[in-house]
Predict the 3D structure of the following.
Amino acid sequence: MAEAEGTRFPAGTIEAQISAILAAWGMAEEHVAITTRIMLAADLRGIDSHGLAMLPLYEEHLRNGKITMRPQIRVVRESPVTALIDGGGGLGHVPSDLAMRTAIDKAKRAGLAAVGVRNSAHYGAAGIYALMAAQEGLIGLSTTAVWKPSVVPTFAAEPMFGTNPIAFAAPAGRYPPFVLDMATSTVAIGKLKIATFAGKPLPLGWVVDAEGKPVTDPHEALRIRSMTPLGGTPEMSSHKGYGLGAMVEILSTTLTGAAFAPLRQARDPDAARHDVGQFFMAIDPKAFRDEGEFEADLDEMIDALHAARRADPYQPVLVAGEPEERAVAERAAVGIPVPDTLRAIVAGIARRAGAAMLL
Amino acid sequence: MAEAEGTRFPAGTIEAQISAILAAWGMAEEHVAITTRIMLAADLRGIDSHGLAMLPLYEEHLRNGKITMRPQIRVVRESPVTALIDGGGGLGHVPSDLAMRTAIDKAKRAGLAAVGVRNSAHYGAAGIYALMAAQEGLIGLSTTAVWKPSVVPTFAAEPMFGTNPIAFAAPAGRYPPFVLDMATSTVAIGKLKIATFAGKPLPLGWVVDAEGKPVTDPHEALRIRSMTPLGGTPEMSSHKGYGLGAMVEILSTTLTGAAFAPLRQARDPDAARHDVGQFFMAIDPKAFRDEGEFEADLDEMIDALHAARRADPYQPVLVAGEPEERAVAERAAVGIPVPDTLRAIVAGIARRAGAAMLL
């Protein structure tokens, strides 16, 4: 946390700042509302890399003409349990929100549904979409490919996949939903940035160089951005993280007809759009269990995990989604921390966009 | 490979040996055929731990009365895109084969289907089921919980999940299917056995003791069987492997109404059955893409992965499923290696069952 060097702002202020910039970029009002809600949810959940901090990348994409702010979003295929949405070359949040809502509606009727998105771009934090399903009493799954490869397959020496996250959420009864939201790389790029602040060498196995050798200097690592798949090294089963990254790519890209980034870069480096793909699924537990049974059993599993013997008596055993729930409670009460460096960057973006600076 | 100390047998001989023992145990003829096919497929694919080598565990379960050889397998819930199957307390292969075939049939009609199994037991190698879907032109997913916890959550000091595998398969065009089949632990138990043969210390992060400390003696590790989740250590993101294990448990156990092993052990240690759960899903790419597009794009992705720059010029970049495809080709030609130790164990099982010893 760079909180000591930053300032906390109420969620409403962050929301207004994001909205002001998106609107100044020419995004339609209803798209601004959806995109802002999803970006703010990341900031509230403590996923600092995927809210306000995404604006610099979005500005870069906009300046390079890689995204439009006025996409035509269309459902191009549909069945009672599937749909394919064309994102129209805009940011990913709006078509992804439509995709997850479509999957939820269909799953409530049929028990199960899957929706793909193509011709999209960065969609924010994967967990937000999976959580949408859990908040409606369904199991939710969301995956996304990315515009630029950063993860090096086992035995390779160049990146072929993105951090290709998997998000999976499930509704509990007494507890908030289970929400797993994980990059299939060992660590996310945000952790490299934090390591540069700390000035300490990286653990072996986070980042590799062009020969596939470990990189431990955090500044060098952040420049190279060649991450390892989850597992880190072949000895620690990095082929599993690589396999999971490939699974995400197949669901997000191959199934939707979006672009596989290394091939797009090689064949059409000046392509008008990045054509990123996403995948969403919803499953209704009531297709398998009587009403309430699933949620009660998940509560009992969470109880058992909390009660598991601890390796360190002062470190509780956590369940996926709990750190984010705590962040929401804390940040809704005392505000969202914005490091000074990010605040200065946002000021520049607001100025260039002709938007008010509210932070 | 303990091949130097073993003998190769033709697949037909292994098949006959497995069948003879299952039949001698009293399994119905049609169940013997299905179970043997799935166990043999593991041996052919080089997944040595999940074929013939499973017989000792199955014998133990049978002797302890934890499985029946004459299960009543029933579809207890069904919709056009979902089903729930009760395995009747027998081995998992037969209800799981029915579940995956049901998912495939429904997905061919509707585009997508999910089927759960409860009141089941060990089902062999997860990848065999996912591959069934890919061989029918569909994306396949399979997960299973287990009868006995062996994987310790991040920050815990006792096992709460099994090795809870995820298998995911997808059909290619020129290539054999992509088949990811991975335990969500750092390594499978089979790797510990191999390490005891080699007599070398284990890498830090494969196994932990009752205080959550790393265990490097392979014999001690095999006795304890407290594995780490994929990632291995908190620093290397073991919370992701833990989260994936929980996801598998939610799909396999919570969704199907099967037993969560730590709670079953605590509440009903003498339960008649282990009540293991499994989950299967199939997705038809033709619900999203035109005929052949998915397979052609997956071929191109595999081409690109093969062509990726190598860390070691003599170590090709592999794609999930390729080592298993090579094993099938080799073992179909020259036979399946059976270590002498396993052969002696199988001889004892055959003798006790009153089955012929064919190896």
Remarks:
- The CA atoms of residues 56 and 349 of chain B lie 7 Å apart.
- The first helix of chain B runs from residue 11 to 24.
- Chain B touches chain A through 85 residues (CB under 8 Å).
- The first strand of chain B starts at residue 6 and ends at 9.
